[in-house]
Design goal:
about 35% helix, about 200 residues, two-stranded antiparallel ribbon, mainly alpha, 7 helices
C-alpha cells in the first residue's frame, strides 16, 4: 500500500514537472499567410476608405488648414487654424477647448490628450482624395509620418486618438463599421498586398 502511494506521488510530480516545462502555445497570425490578391486587397481598402471618409475621421484631415466640424463637415468656428504642430495657431490652441476627455453633453467639445490636426509638414489629407489617392498616400512614409506597413496597421488599429472616432460624444454619428471590423479590413488590405484601388474606384 505504501509502495503504491509512493509510486502515485512520483507519477503526480512527474506530471506537474512535464506541464511546467510545456512550451506556451504559439499565437498564429491568420493574416500572415494570406496570398497576394489585388482584387481582395483593393476591396478591403474600399471598406477602410468608407471609414476614413466619414466625418469622424475626415474632420481632422481637411484639405485646408482649418479643421472641420459636425456630421456635415463644416469649417470649424472661431477661426481655428492648424499651426505648425497641428495643435492650433498663436493663442487659439486646440487644448483651449478640447480637454483630455469628451465634455459631457450634446455636441459639447470632444477630447483626447493628443487632440489636433496632423502637423503642417505632414498634413495627411483625406478630404477630396479618391480611394486610390488615399491608399497611395497612406502607404507613402514621406506622407504618413514615416510609418512602415506594420506601424500603419498598429496606428489605425490601436492608436487611442484614432479610436476616439468610435467614442465621439453625444450627438455625433459613428463611423460606418465597428473599430474591430475596421482593423480587420486594414490588416486584410496590407496582408493581401496593400494594393491601391483603380483610378475609377469611388
Amino acid at each position: 500500500m505504501r509502495k503504491l502511494i509512493v509510486i502515485s506521488a512520483i507519477a503526480l510530480i512527474a506530471g506537474i514537472i512535464t506541464l511546467s516545462f510545456r512550451p506556451a502555445p504559439v499565437k498564429t497570425n491568420k493574416y500572415a499567410t494570406l496570398p497576394k490578391d489585388s482584387v481582395g486587397s483593393a476591396k478591403a481598402f474600399m471598406a477602410v476608405y468608407r471609414v476614413l471618409k466619414s466625418s469622424r475621421c475626415m474632420n481632422c484631415h481637411p484639405s485646408g488648414d482649418a479643421p472641420l466640424q459636425g456630421d456635415d463637415s463644416h469649417i470649424h468656428t472661431m477661426n481655428v487654424k492648424r499651426g505648425i504642430d497641428g495643435k492650433g495657431l498663436y493663442s487659439v490652441r486646440c487644448s483651449n477647448c478640447h480637454q483630455a476627455e469628451n465634455v459631457a453633453g450634446l455636441h459639447m467639445p470632444p477630447g483626447n490628450p493628443k487632440w489636433g490636426l496632423p502637423p503642417a509638414d505632414m498634413r495627411m489629407v483625406f478630404q477630396g482624395r479618391t480611394p486610390r489617392q488615399l491608399a497611395l498616400q497612406l502607404l507613402d512614409p514621406k506622407q504618413n509620418g514615416g510609418r512602415t506597413k506594420a506601424q500603419l496597421i498598429d496606428h489605425m488599429a490601436n492608436d487611442d486618438l484614432v479610436g476616439w472616432a468610435w467614442h465621439p460624444g453625444d450627438g455625433r454619428t459613428l463611423p460606418p463599421m465597428t473599430r474591430q471590423a475596421f482593423a480587420a479590413q486594414v490588416r486584410l488590405w496590407i496582408a493581401k498586398g496593400a494594393y491601391a484601388p483603380s483610378a475609377k474606384a469611388k
